[in-house]
Amino acid sequence: MTEDIKLKLAVVQMDCAVGNVTANLQKIDHFAQTASEQNVNLVIFPECATTGYFISDNLADLAEPVDGPTDQKLAEIAAGAGIHLAVGTVVADKGKYYNAQVIFSPTGKRLATYYKAHLFSTERLSYELGNMPTIVDTDLGRIGMTICYDMIFPDYFRTLVNRGAEIIINSTNWISDAYQRETWGWSGVTTQGMAATRALENGVIVAMANRTGTEMGFESLGHSCIIAPSGQILASIPNGEDIAIADIHFKGEDLEKWRSVATYRQDRRPELYD
Questions:
Q1: Is 219 inside any structural domain?
Q2: Is 270 within a domain?
Q3: Tell me, what CATH number does 227's domain have?
Q4: Whole-model pTM?
Q5: Whose CA is closest to 102, among 129, 65, 128, 139?
Q6: Full 3-state SS string of 81-98
Q7: How many structural domains does the chain have?
Q8: HSE (CB half, 13 Å, CA atoms) of 231?
């Protein structure tokens, strides 16, 4: 029988100060403590949460090596809160820059650093592609790590699930301008629906932490959320800075019953898809 799943997840929707790592780390610390006070097991922060997103002109100053000063401070925050902590950062590695996501254990141990595999638009001018799908074994289960645009590609999420991911986290900064909103209706409702679809089609928990606020004339879309394997929205933040917490308790027999109905992975016919 499938084992019960019992944990508390949190996603933080924050406005980042562009280029001000100290201020962003202070805000991350505040929200991590808030999550800890509510007995959260894992808290997820947005893409580039430590630096802000539009930083291509300052990458040489803001990007740091793995286990550099920012990672060390994040490790302290995780240990101080006694919580699993996942945060979007920017990494300098052998003369190249990566849009990254790092996860720490409640003891402050860095469990993994993931480099974004799918780069959007002008991101390719600043960052290198990551080439390592990353799944982390934790006391909470097997966590698949993703960043923003990775979510657009269902095959990538499916690959993580096929490799054993039970929870998929997504640090993101979905953005829009007036043209995208008014002409095409691009919105946080759309991105939240995409997260729900990824959870539904794979039968896993998906937790997406998005930015809020504006940078360079672009508005971040919010709608951070935590999604059940059925696609049910367990917690969400439509707008503004906040933390959303979901107390997840899925009984093993209920999961088995749901998956016996929602046989989406088994019913695929890859031989028809090429």
A1: yes
A2: no
A3: 3.60.110.10
A4: 0.97
A5: 65
A6: HCCEEEEEEEEEECCEEE
A7: 1
A8: 11
